[in-house]
């Protein structure tokens, strides 16, 4: 993890895994806030794996920032993190409206929108495409989960249907037996 | 609509999972009544949801003079055949008057659990990876690497994200709550990728729903790991083992329905 600041922006780069085993050793995201810092950017482009413990660390950092009146932005979230925020309903909280910003100039991310340089725009287009791919991936996974849930409902229904089926059969057999002429070889069940 | 499958035990029903053989034994004792029927139906379904090699139901201790349990065993057998074709359900030690009333092609019986196990033979899945790990945070790293590697080798890269998350959470939970060695297993069982972590304490996990009245994100509340497993997995549950317990989760290999 590396941190550097540019003016009023503090950029913390988190790479590798942010998970149970890294957080267990103590809060890894120590945010060195000085009065000069007005914006914190957590660059997670190199983040490989994140779990609930890692997510909690990010949320704690966000909380610390907002507590000091400092903005909090996650930059470059990958498919892994997006999947996790989606599954935990924290996408709005962590990725929010700033999710689309991913340029390399730290302060540019926080300036009002203006004419972008050609290379800057290309970069933004690439990043938007990558985001679109990620969203498609998430949409696919959502469909997958939906299909599985429908499957489980059907499974429960199958069990009930089979039970009813067999009960009807037994009733039918019972009626059929009662209608037959009495036979000395019949035994009561 | 719930994908959580926690077995229910009672004074008349016990469940024991054999982790290595992937066989679950259900012992039914005492008098059959509506209460036992509910517990039995629920637990047999929970055992089947884990996609085991077989579920063996020991009925040698069952007292059912009116043969009222027959309906449940028929339902269970048909359900297994229709929904879990890779698993076998074998009713063991069935006595009068239930036994003569068990008919149908789906019904499998055996004289005893031992006989049923002998008949089963070896586990059919060739893709299986297992690691025993000490109770420390690093176990979660190793376990999720195990899952990730398996997904790549078995040509299921699309499951890597979910598999890593699920395996990591299950392992972290075991390390945090059990404090014993853990055994992490990844296996391919027909249409599902099966992830499981065994630890050597008996207490089964409880899924804690998040408290809507508390401020902040549900993620920050206790139990978020299992809630995540529930969201990410096709199904999940826990089974008592001879030693300790196993917490398992499955991921459907493809998104479509499992056709019966």
Automatic annotation (TrEMBL), chain A:
Name recorded for this polypeptide = STAS domain-containing protein
Report the residue ranges that make up the STAS domain in this protein.
Answer: 1-93
Classification via InterPro entries: STAS_dom (IPR002645), STAS_dom_sf (IPR036513)
Q: Where is this region: Disordered?
A: 98-128, 164-189
Q: Which domain of life is it from?
A: Bacteria
Q: Which Pfam families match?
A: STAS
Native species: Actinoplanes sandaracinus
User: Matching CDD domains, A to Z?
Assistant: STAS_anti-anti-sigma_factors
Automatic annotation (TrEMBL), chain B:
InterPro entries membership: Anti-sigma-factor_SerPK, HATPase_C_sf
This chain's protein is named ATP-binding protein
Q: Which domain of life is it from?
A: Bacteria
The protein's UniProt keywords, in alphabetical order, are: ATP-binding, Nucleotide-binding
Aminoacyl-tRNA synthetase listed as a keyword: no
* Taxonomy of the source species: Bacteria, Bacillati, Actinomycetota, Actinomycetes, Micromonosporales
- What Gene Ontology molecular-function terms does this entry list? ATP binding
The UniProt record lists the keyword Nucleotide-binding:
yes
């Amino acid at each position: 993890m590396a941190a550097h600041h540019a003016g009023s922006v503090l950029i913390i780069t988190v790479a590798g895994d942010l998970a149970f085993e890294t957080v267990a050793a103590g809060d890894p995201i120590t945010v060195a806030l000085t009065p000069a810092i007005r914006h914190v950017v957590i660059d997670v482009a190199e983040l490989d794996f994140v779990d609930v413990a890692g997510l909690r660390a990010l949320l704690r950092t966000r909380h610390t920032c907002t507590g000091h009146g400092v903005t909090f932005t996650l930059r470059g979230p990958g498919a892994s993190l997006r999947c996790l925020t989606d599954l935990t309903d924290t996408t709005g909280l962590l990725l929010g409206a700033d999710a689309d910003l991913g340029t390399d100039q730290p302060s540019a991310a926080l300036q009002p929108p203006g004419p972008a340089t050609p290379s800057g725009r290309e970069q933004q287009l690439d990043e938007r495409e990558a985001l679109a791919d990620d969203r498609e991936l998430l949409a696919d996974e959502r469909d997958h989960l939906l299909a599985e849930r429908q499957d489980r409902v059907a499974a429960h229904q199958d069990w009930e249907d089979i039970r009813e089926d067999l009960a009807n059969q037994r009733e039918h057999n019972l009626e059929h037996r009662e209608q037959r002429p009495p036979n000395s070889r019949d035994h009561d069940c | 609509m719930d994908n959580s499958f926690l077995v229910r035990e009672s004074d008349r029903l016990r469940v024991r999972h054999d982790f290595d053989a992937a066989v679950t034994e259900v012992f039914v004792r005492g008098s059959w009544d509506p209460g036992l029927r509910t517990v039995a139906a629920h637990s047999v379904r929970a055992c089947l949801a884990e996609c085991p090699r077989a579920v063996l139901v020991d009925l040698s201790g069952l007292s059912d003079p009116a043969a009222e349990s027959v309906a449940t065993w028929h339902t269970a057998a048909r359900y297994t055949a229709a929904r879990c074709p890779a698993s076998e359900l074998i009713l063991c030690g069935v006595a009068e008057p239930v036994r003569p009333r068990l008919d149908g092609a789906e019904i499998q019986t055996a004289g005893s659990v031992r006989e049923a196990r002998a008949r089963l033979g070896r586990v059919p899945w060739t893709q299986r990876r297992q690691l025993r790990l000490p109770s420390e945070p690093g176990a979660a790293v190793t376990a999720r690497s195990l899952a990730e590697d398996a997904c790549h080798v078995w040509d299921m890269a699309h499951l890597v994200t979910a598999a890593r998350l699920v395996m990591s959470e299950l392992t972290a939970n075991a390390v945090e709550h059990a404090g014993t060695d853990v055994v992490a297993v990844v296996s391919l069982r027909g249409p599902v990728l099966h992830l499981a972590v065994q630890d050597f304490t008996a207490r089964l996990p409880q899924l804690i729903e998040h408290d809507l009245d508390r401020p902040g994100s549900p993620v920050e509340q206790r139990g978020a790991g299992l809630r995540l497993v529930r969201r990410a997995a096709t199904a999940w549950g826990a089974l008592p083992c001879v030693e300790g317990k196993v917490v398992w989760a499955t991921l459907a290999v493809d998104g479509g329905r499992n056709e019966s």
